[in-house]
Specification:
274 residues, mainly beta, Fumarylacetoacetate hydrolase, domain 2
């Protein structure tokens, strides 16, 4: 089953929880007039795994972790297909990171590896947008990973039963050139180990999202480029489309904002069966 999540109220924020206006349905519902596409889940928390691909750890000059390296992104960072990723003035380097996302289907606490996969509702894709300079400066990752709009998710949730998991690849393209192409089999810590590790100290609720790490090839979204684009091929063949807007150009943010400078990105934040 493939499904999207959307609102009948076009002004509903991407970060909104489920409400009477929010619906779940097939991807074809996205064509209905007046709807607002939302992230495919409404997590109470976004749990992320750092350096879960060996070559990604090495490209940033790090050793592979001996156990899952866990951090959180706030739900306020969520955006959906068509939303703008805001390039913050506080950062001089913002990177894309294409990742496979796990959506949890039922409450999970102290889950064994043997039963861990039973708690997965399905898969989606996450663009773990990162202010790399702030991540390095701070030494911990909350600010660099936690800006509003820094977690693009969707557009669909795909049931785990429809996926040949071992055949999945996460691919990121920039201007048509492949920048990331990693098999999920290259993860240092597989899904069962990740879920067991997280639930040993934290309760996962239905709808919670786990971003499982990015393959090598991450790079900056460079505001000096004319028309950079990102395409992450997904499980459904449906793209996430969006644009990156420089924070200083947002109307009303300052009394006299500088002239507009918009980077157009088309992030297809997902993976596909090879």
């Amino acid at each position: 089953m493939k499904q999207i999540r959307y609102s009948l109220n076009s002004s509903t924020p991407s970060t909104s929880p489920d409400s009477p206006d929010v619906r779940y349905g097939p991807p074809s519902d996205a064509a209905a007039p007046g709807i607002r596409l939302l992230p495919p889940c409404a997590p109470t928390k976004i749990v992320c795994v750092g350096r879960n691909y060996l070559e990604h750890a090495r490209e940033l000059g790090n050793e592979a972790p001996s156990e899952p390296l866990i951090f959180l992104k706030p739900p306020s960072s969520l955006i959906a297909s068509g939303d703008a990723i805001v390039y913050p003035e506080l950062s001089q380097r913002v990177d894309f990171e294409g990742e496979l996302g796990i959506v949890i289907g039922e409450r999970a606490r102290h889950v064994s590896r043997e039963k861990a996969l039973d708690y997965i509702l399905g898969y989606t894709i996450v663009n773990d947008v990162t202010a790399r300079d702030l991540q390095k400066k701070d030494g911990q990752w909350t600010r660099g990973k936690g800006f509003d709009t820094f977690c693009a998710v969707g557009p669909c949730l795909v049931s785990k039963d429809e996926v040949d998991f071992d055949s999945l690849r996460v691919r990121t393209l920039v201007d048509g050139v492949v920048k990331q192409d990693g098999s999920v089999k290259d993860m240092i810590f597989p899904l069962d180990a990740i879920i067991a590790f997280i639930t040993a100290f934290m309760t996962l609720e239905p709808g919670d999202l786990i971003a499982t790490g990015t393959p090598p090839g991450i790079w900056r979204i460079d505001s000096s480029e004319s028309q950079p684009s990102i395409e992450l091929l997904d499980l459904t063949g449906t793209p996430i489309t969006g644009r990156v807007v420089i924070e200083a150009t947002i109307p009303g943010k300052w009394a006299a904002p500088p002239a507009p400078a918009i980077i157009t990105l088309r992030p297809r934040c997902a993976a596909r069966v090879a």
